[in-house]
Amino acid sequence: MLVLRKPYLLFIGDVRSAVDAKTALGLVDWCPDDVLGELAFPRAALSTGKPAMSVAEAAAAGAGSLLIGIAPAGGALPAHWLPSLLDAVHAGLDIVSGLHTRLTDIPELVDAAAAAGVQLQDVRHGAWPRVTGTGRKRSGQRVLTVGTDCALGKKYTALALTRALQARGVPATFRATGQTGVMISGSGVAIDAVVSDFIAGVAEQLSPDNAADHWDVIEGQGSLFHPAYAGVSLGLLHGSQPDALVMCHDAGRRHIASLPGFATPSLPTAIEACLSAGRLTNAAIRCIGVSVNSSSLGEAAWRDYREQLQAELNLPVVDPMRGGVESLAQVIHHYNKESSHVA
Questions:
Q1: What sign does the dihedral 82-88-93-97 (CA atoms) show?
Q2: What's the CATH code, domain 141-342?
Q3: pLDDT tens, 90-102?
Q4: Is 0.85 surpassed by the pTM of this model?
Q5: Could you give the CA distance from residue 191 to residue 182 in angstroms, rounded to a whole number?
Q6: Of 69, 46, 257, nearest to 147 (Cα)?
Q7: DSSP H helical segments within the chain, as ranges?
Q8: H helices then E strands: how many in the chain?
Q9: How far is C-alpha 197 from the geometric centre of its chain's CA atoms?
Q10: Gap between the Cα atoms of 99 and 141, Å rounded
């Protein structure tokens, strides 16, 4: 698994929009204490709100890595960024990137990193172990966020649930499976970069044996209903061996993102499909609730939608950005208490 050196200096260069800066903004939202400041060019159109810092200032303040927090169109690394990256390497900082361009494919940067004794961390392109899944029952508890589609809140739900559990005193660890999640937590695996035969095996290693009352909160990827990414979702589901699922859904989405020919499934259909697939490695798997991205709904419409779903599914329904996930944490906390009483 990747382990990143914190704290970070966020590189936002000549960022033009919040969409381009979603990685940087996500880090500021979820691990603000791990971000010392930002490095922006004069023509940058926005700020993360963190202090402006030069490479030298960040190094003097104890930064461990320069983290590329923006994604230009196509995921390529623009040539005019290279001097800033070289400055960071020369100052003793690792470079962390989630771009399609590999840092290790840039000879000048590779030579400088070797001379400085620092790491070039291509989060999207890690050298993941080639291990196959075993299906062996592991100790500890696991909850996985799954979804009716991609990009609708699986990461945010997992992060919010981890915090809510920890606030209740439940031992819980966020397990990152995507590049931004890895950057936030400082460790994990970009599961969509793993060769398909080994996704389940790597997922098993990501959430190993643990104490009986400990919960790994595993960030989901893709969707069983996405024609392109269902394979990643299924391998992660089997390898995670979750005891609990949280189904994530976008209230305003009628079809799979960018694929209008594929309607999003109903929530009962999606829940049963994930449970059915998950029973291969954990016969006791269950769905403990639904997490909704309700950004398309006004307050009254969200309240009505939530009440309707709760009545239909007989499950807690939450939005992590609109009221939090406390009801999901309560289900897990109650389950821990019941398990302890039985033991």
A1: negative
A2: 3.40.50.300
A3: 999 999 999 888 9
A4: yes
A5: 10
A6: 257
A7: 22-30, 55-60, 82-90, 107-116, 154-167, 179-185, 199-206, 230-240, 267-278, 299-313, 326-342
A8: 11, 15
A9: 21
A10: 33
Question: Are the CB atoms for 158 and 30 separated by under 8 Å?
Answer: no
Please report which confidence band the pLDDT of residue 258 belongs to, taking 50, 70 and 90 as the band edges.
confident
CA distance 233 to 287: 16
Residue limits of CATH 3.40.50.720 in the chain: 2-125
CA-to-CA distance for 214 and 171, rounded, in angstroms?
A: 5
Task: Point out the least confidently predicted range of 18-22, 139-143, 280-284, 328-332.
Answer: 18-22
| 120-122 vs 94-97, strand pairing mode | parallel
* C-alpha of 93 from chain center: 24
Name beta bridge partners: 52. Answer: 38
Q: Is the dihedral of CA 239, 245, 247, 248 positive or negative?
A: negative
Instruction: Let me know if domain 2-125 sits in CATH 3.40.50.720.
Output: yes
Instruction: Identify the H or E element spanning 47.
Output: none
Delimiting residues of CATH 3.40.50.300 domain(s) in the chain? 141-342
User: Angle, to 10 degrees, between the axis of helix 199-206 and the axis of helix 230-240?
Assistant: 40
Q: What pLDDT was estimated at residue 339?
A: 64
pLDDT of residue 342: 43
Q: Which residue is it, tokens 């499950």?
A: 315
* Contact between 213 and 141 (Cβ < 8 Å): yes
Residue 226 near residue 256, CB atoms below 8 Å: yes
Which residues have CB under 8 Å from 218's CB, separation 6+? 142, 143, 144, 145, 158, 175, 177, 203, 206, 207, 236, 240, 242
- Residue 41 to residues 34, 99, 124, Cα–Cα distance (Å): 22, 19, 25
The encoded tokens of residue 343 equal 């033991």
What residue has token string 């643990």?
210
The token pair at 10 is 């966020």
Residue 204: left if φ>0, alpha if ψ -120 to 50, beta else—which one? alpha
